[in-house]
Amino acid sequence: MSFGVRMRTTIEPTGPWRRPARSLGTGGTWLLVGLMLASSMASVRADEPPAEVVVRPEPAPGPLDNPLKGWCPYTDAGPIRQPYSMVFLYAPWKELEPEEGRYAFEQWERRAWAAPEAQGKHVVLRVYIDYPGRPSGLPGWLKDQGVTLTPYEDHGGGLSPDYDDPRMVAALERLIEAMGRRYNAHPRVAFLQLGLLGFWGEWHTWPRSELYASPQTEQRVIEAYRRAFPDTLLQARYARDFAGEQPWLGFHDDMFPEDTDNGRDWSFLAGLRRSGRTDNWQRAAIGGEMVPHRATAWLGPEYRQTVEMLERGHFTWIGPYCPALGRSQGPEFRERGEALVRRMGYQFRLDEIRHPASVVRDEPLKVVIRGENEGVAPFYYPWQAELALLDESGEPVEWLRLDCDVRSWLPGPFRVEEAVGVQAPAGRYRLALGIIDPWTDRPSIAFANELDRQGGWAVLSALVVESRQVGDRP
What we know:
The chain is an alpha/beta fold. 21% of the residues lie in helices and 26% in strands. Strands 14, 16, 17, 19, 20, 21 and 22 form a seven-stranded mixed sheet that branches.
């Protein structure tokens, strides 16, 4: 059985002596690796440690649909022409709470989450009250209670509610609490934007600043979200006032890359610098929307600036408008879009894997993994890294949990060194690595290497599990 993998695999004796490493080159077969393992093991005395397998996978372009990064398009804005792993979903408050205290989350999900474009995708959520050009999202029961609405004509017109009305603020806090019960730690929810306040839920009513909420209301909304969503990554539009004091909060720039860092004091990154939040990307995701209908320019003559802004802001995802929705999909446009996705967020490349060629059942297997995060940001959730022993059909016989925290793999090199107990029956296996998505309970993050994948597992090398011999020490 062929590995189907381009890698350099070496089997080295360990102990006080060591011969120069011999490489299998590329495309080594399962049979050849097994024969080398058997030969190497036979040449080592019983009192010597087993030979060591060293694998250096060939690098390759990273995947374009790794989870929780890349393009995050609308589901209702036309064809999506590039790979993506997330979709952006707006929801009006009145649809989620049509009657006071009666929440219709399940009904909304059946409609929005089941769209063909959303199938198999994680979601980013934003709830709005006032979306210019659309009917008001304020629930009718709040209007009936006396919350006032002020008409405006900007951006297509709409009705702006009184955000500081005590009845409004209390109802917002109850809504957020209910959303937390439904969506905190929900395995399909990638990120949740604070939304609710201002035009489009973007925390401003420019140029009608008198219509916007007070800093006190902003603070109460942020505190409500923090209580309701301790396990879900949240994003705010601006790093100002109380939001700018929060080290745990992510942010979204909805005018990327034009206003990301344009030299003016109101630009996105200027606000992060002013509030001391420029390092928040190390623990909370940065996302945002590309300037609508400008993808051709930003991936054309202004591409250099686009790359610079992405790197300067440590962006993990872009949407809902993004180049995946662009009508012009020429070769250069697609190539540049793919390069941006690979640079966004995380991209894990494996450089070297070391482990003994064999292990006695019920004893620890020591594994050392070196790699590099080639992206501009970490992975933000504590998804579990696992090793698996695959049989010849590619099915996992045993999963071996690693204690490493993938969130600590910041841009640059990372290293994992662990010993894990093996309990699989004696035999020959393929050793594989995966990072498990809690939504599917399967490995879903692909590495930037030419590695065979079996059921999502990245196949690394071969491993022999031996039975404990009679008389061996336990």
